[in-house]
Every structure is written in C-alpha cells, then in structure tokens.
C-alpha cells in the first residue's frame, strides 16, 4: 500500500513536470532550431550548421571532424531529443573559434560548457553527450584550431595560440549563453563548466580571468602549469638516458613495466588493503637499489645495472628550473611511465617520444620551427617556454578572490595513479590558492574542494573506483549527486549542500554493461578514505573519511 502511494506520487510528479515542459517547448523545438540564426545576437558569430536530432538512442557521424580528433566516421551519440548548432566565432583577423551546442528539448535550465584535452583542437563530445542526457544545454569548443596533432595550426599564428591559451572558453561562455537565450527565450538560471586535463587547466584559468562566466566549475586532473607538465616528459626521458637508447644508463620499456609492478607489490599493502592500488603515492620514497641485479627482486632480463639505478632514481626526483627552484613534483610511484619511457619508434627503431605534444607544441608555439626536436631537451627549454608563455597558456596564478567573492564554487578531482599530470600538483595548487587568499581550510572549503581518487589514471580509467560520472556512457547509478561530481557541484551551487565525499564506481572490465565490480568513498582533501578494517572492501560503506 505504501509502495503504491509512492508510485502514484511519482506519476503525479511526472505529470506536473510534463505540463511545465510542454509550455516551454512552444518556444523551442525543430522550427526554433533552424531559426536560431535569425534571432542570435552575438558579435562576430556565424551559424554554420543547425540539425534537429529527435532519435534519442541513435547516433550520427561527425562528418566535419578531422582524423586526429576521431575522424569523420566517428559516431556521436544522441542522448536526448535535441537541437544541434555549430557556430564560428571570429576572434581576430587571423583566428576563429568553433562552438558547438546540444540543446535538449527537456532542458533543466542550466548551461554547461566544456573544454579540450592535450593540445586542444577537438570538441569534448563525451561530456556534451552526458550533459545533454542530464538536461543541460551543453557546449563544446575546438579551442581555436582543428586537430590534436601537428604544429601547423600554431606555427606563426599568435592569435590562434591565444584562443588555445586563454580565450576560447570565454568565447564559448559568451556565445553559448546568447545561443541559450535565442533558442529557449531566456537566460540559463545557472552556468557550469566541466573539463579534464587541458580542460582542467581551462577551468582554473576561467575562474581566475573570467570569474563571472560560471557559477560552478569542475576541474579534472587539471593541467595547471601546462608548459611544465609538457616539458616534464622531455626532462624525464632525458633523465633515463633517452635518446641514447644504447647507452648503459638507458632504461628499457619492459624494465619500466617491471619497476612499476614492483613498486605496486611493495607499496600497495602499506595502506592496509591489498588491491593493486597505492592509495597515496606521495607518502612513500622509493629506492631503486632494491631492483638491482643480484638483489633478487627482478629477474636477470629486467633487473637494473648500476647506471640504470641512477637513471631510475633521478626519474622520480622533482623538477627544478635553471635557478634550482623546484617547480614540478615527482612522477607518481606505481603509475605507468609510458609518457617518458615508451620512446622508440617501433617501425624505424629510432628514438622518438610517443608523447607527441612536446614536439608539436614546441615546434609550433615556442620555437616556430618544424625542424626542432626534443632530443636535447633541458630545463632551459622549459624555462624559455614559461618566459615567453605563448598565447598566455600558462597564465595561471592563485588569486581566485574574485571567483570566491561572487559565490563561485570549484570542484577539482585528480587520480592518484595519473600517468600524465602528477597528482601532487593539485595539492600544490590548492595550497597556493590558500596562501594567496590567506584562507583557513574551512574558508577554502566554502568555495574550493579537491577530491583525490586513488587508483585512477589520467581523467579516467585505472584499477580504482574511478567512475564519478565523468565519462561516456553515463551509467545508471552515476546520475545522482552522490555518485557524480558534476551533479554534486550543481547541488552545492544551487542548494548550498557541500560535498564531503563522492562514491566512485569501478565497472567490471571498465564496461558499464558488465555491472559494478566495486565502489569506494572518495573524500574531500585533505581527508582520505580509509578502510574501516572489517567491511567488504568493494563496498563504499566500508570506507571512511579521516
Ligand atoms: C558513441 O557510443 C559508442 C558506443 O558506446 C562509442 O564507441 C563512441 O565513442 C561514442 N561516441 C562519442 C563521441 O563519445
Ligand atoms: C534517451 O534514451 C536513454 C536510453 O537510451 C534514456 O535513458 C533517456 O531517458 C532518454 N532521454 C530522453 C530525454 O528521452
Ligand atoms: C570561420 O571564420 C573564419 C575567420 O573569419 C573563416 O576563415 C572560416 O572560413 C570560417 N568558417 C566557416 C565554416 O564559416
Ligand atoms: C570581433 O572580431 C574583431 C576582429 O575581427 C575583434 O577585434 C573583436 O574583439 C571581436 N569582438 C568580440 C566581441 O569578440
Ligand atoms: C575547423 O573545422 C570546421 C569544420 O570543418 C571549420 O568550419 C572551421 O573553419 C575550422 N577552423 C579552423 C580554425 O580551421
Ligand atoms: C616564424 O618563422 C617564419 C620563417 O620560418 C618567419 O617568417 C616568421 O616571421 C616567424 N614568426 C615568428 C613569430 O617568429
Ligand atoms: C622476468 O620478469 C619479467 C617482469 O616480471 C617477466 O615479464 C619475464 O617473463 C621474466 N623473465 C624470465 C626469464 O623469467
Ligand atoms: C614511426 O616512424 C614512421 C616512419 O617515419 C612514421 O610513419 C610513424 O608515424 C612513426 N611513429 C610511430 C608511432 O610509428
Ligand atoms: C643534440 O646535441 C648533440 C650533442 O650535443 C648534437 O650532436 C646534436 O646535433 C643535437 N641534436 C639536435 C637535434 O639538436
Ligand atoms: C592571515 O589571516 C590571519 C587570520 O585571519 C591574520 O591573523 C593574518 O594577519 C593574515 N595575514 C595576512 C598576511 O594578511
């Protein structure tokens, strides 16, 4: 009986909602979609494309997408009945930013902007798809150039560098809100941003430079100090002997696999749970001497010779600039080292970094030369890049006072098994902002909260319970504020409920359809999730924040 009345209450609630929605839908829908170009009031903006997608659950090819972003045959997934709009915004005489909108019929009156990854140049469709499925008017941008590989788009193009550096997200926010107004007939009630990696860099930069753009900002694995992150890959590769791949100090790729495996075997149990996850790798120091040939930990084909021990030791040291000041934290223990150790072209056998962003960006943006290679990379190159700061890409800084003063909320998250952006950087940045604002921890937590996710790789993936609603597809069970950080941010902004923890989910084989493997409670920094010592470690309730 009680169940029946609950069901009735839900049916009634739905009926009320539907009525409210049908009155809204008179102002939008297919006709309005094609009509946006005539009502849109935005400077320097041309509508390139309008498409109505009323086949929720189906997909369509991204015919204009360049190959390094996934190519023209990649399918975008329609996650709601929606209007898709693409606009071209001229940002200078030699640059333009592409902005794409997915406008669901069933709009939740919220605006969601997204950023880029790596060297930019691709629209973040996964986040847009998820956003639209939750009812957000969802936007993406190419960041001012098309493609995530190569240097041509940056070469001798200072204005394109500015779009990537600091301008594109602000343009997306400005034009995006106008598109919402033109299509739905009114402004969004709340404005959000979500991005990871480079998108996380753009998140912090937006809060810093354009504090009015968003009410809530979600910054994943943030690439703050982007130029040093990119440089670190070259510096670490050089520390292990690259490009002299036949020297005695060079450490081979298969040796790194064994080194990282040994780190996990030794360090993982120290946090009390043996699960292949080093909860907090910054707590430990690691002496590679124990992996020496003869020590008995690694076998004869992968053990370390004396010169290699020195290489490995230096690979886990922090990075200092030319003046000796430490500017970048040590590489994560237990994380895949591919970004600096997978550096021989398997076709040619020649030294070549598989991490292409270093060469691409330094050729196009820093040295203006397609002949440049990272073979001789040193801290001088890193310092040169930060000195010239192409397109203001590294204009970070820690003074978030304006964003804080207007009531903005920022959530950052970072995997503790990040192979690309060392997770300690997020704690550094948190402390930097705290020092800038001279704020107590509880004052910081009024507007800025950081969540570390043990066992998560860069942005997603890894052995940990990493799914917090940040990847496509958005699984059933990750569409509420307990399991989804974007929705936790919404609740914080709109209802004032501060997120103290979030439940991460690990799906079997990282495949949603295979079902849940485990869940874990992740805690607001500096608190950590610790096993209660008795419960099933695959259940979130067995983990406490301390
Ligand atoms: C659309 O969904 C398919 C199947 O899940 C996936 O392979 C593809 O990458 C998705 N497209 C985008 C742009 O996320
Ligand atoms: C779209 O389809 C998915 C399943 O394919 C469903 O869960 C969702 O509720 C649908 N959304 C809308 C707005 O119809
Ligand atoms: C976008 O704008 C730029 C600069 O004004 C122009 O060169 C480009 O052709 C435009 N693209 C489209 C599709 O309109
Ligand atoms: C419009 O484009 C011009 C250059 O073409 C630029 O100077 C101006 O700042 C742009 N306006 C806006 C609002 O972006
Ligand atoms: C990016 O690609 C789109 C779609 O083909 C095109 O309209 C736009 O002009 C391109 N932008 C740049 C900067 O090349
Ligand atoms: C980049 O190099 C080209 C020639 O290689 C030169 O014409 C151009 O002026 C250079 N641009 C900058 C910004 O130095
Ligand atoms: C040595 O150890 C590595 C890494 O554990 C393993 O892949 C390899 O098969 C081992 N080789 C021998 C000869 O046991
Ligand atoms: C390796 O070298 C070949 C030949 O120069 C090149 O085509 C390829 O892109 C390089 N990279 C990889 C990852 O194979
Ligand atoms: C790197 O340095 C070595 C030795 O100093 C030099 O022989 C080589 O030409 C340099 N390579 C590049 C690509 O500059
Ligand atoms: C920082 O805040 C503390 C406590 O509110 C205050 O005593 C101190 O003077 C402040 N320091 C600066 C440099 O503003």
UniProtKB/TrEMBL annotation:
Q: Which residue positions does the secretion signal occupy?
A: 1-20
* Protein name per UniProt: Carboxylic ester hydrolase
UniProt keyword annotations, A-Z:
Calcium, Carbohydrate metabolism, Disulfide bond, Hydrolase, Metal-binding, Polysaccharide degradation, Serine esterase, Signal, Xylan degradation
Give GO terms: molecular function aspect only: feruloyl esterase activity; metal ion binding
Which EC number applies? 3.1.1.-
InterPro entries, from UniProt?
Answer: AB_hydrolase_fold, Tannase/feruloyl_esterase
A biological process from GO = xylan catabolic process
Catalyzed chemical reaction(s):
feruloyl-polysaccharide + H2O = ferulate + polysaccharide
- Asked if Methyltransferase is a keyword of the record, the answer is no
Superkingdom of origin organism: Eukaryota
Organism equals Zasmidium cellare ATCC 36951
In the record, the note on similarity to other proteins reads: Belongs to the tannase family.
